Amino acid sequence: MALGAWGRVALVAAGVVALDQATKALVRSRIADGDRVHVIPGVELVHTRNTGVAFGALSGGGAVVTIVVAIALVALLGYFATHVQRPLFWLPTGMLVGGAIGNVIDRLRAGEVTDFVQIPLGFPAFNVADMSITFGVIVLLFVIEHDAGARDR
What we know:
The protein is α+β, with helices and mostly antiparallel strands and about 150 residues long. Helices cover about 60% and strands about 10% of the residues.
């Protein structure tokens, strides 16, 4: 049985949430708060907490963060519902929804998000959900641009 676009969104989102929550649980159980573990040159695993959204934006925002995330998800799903036939549009939608849900689970559980990947140059620590959101935006832009280019031909 083939999955429809909504089923593919749900599958991608569930995969992102599972990977995100598993990696965060592993970090919380294996790395003490504030400790660092060198992985490769320029990349460390850290155990830190974030009260904002992706990469620390809106840190300390509390209810504002929840409202911003809810509005963004409603807008994304509304847009997806009206463009469900676009090829591959389900992929970035699932990535964005999964990333948002992964971080919302942390906020509901602890009032903050567990971050653990640290790269140089003062970049804030991040997690799998943040990576999924970032790559989801990039893939979304590619899908929209590719679709627009195909219609112009």
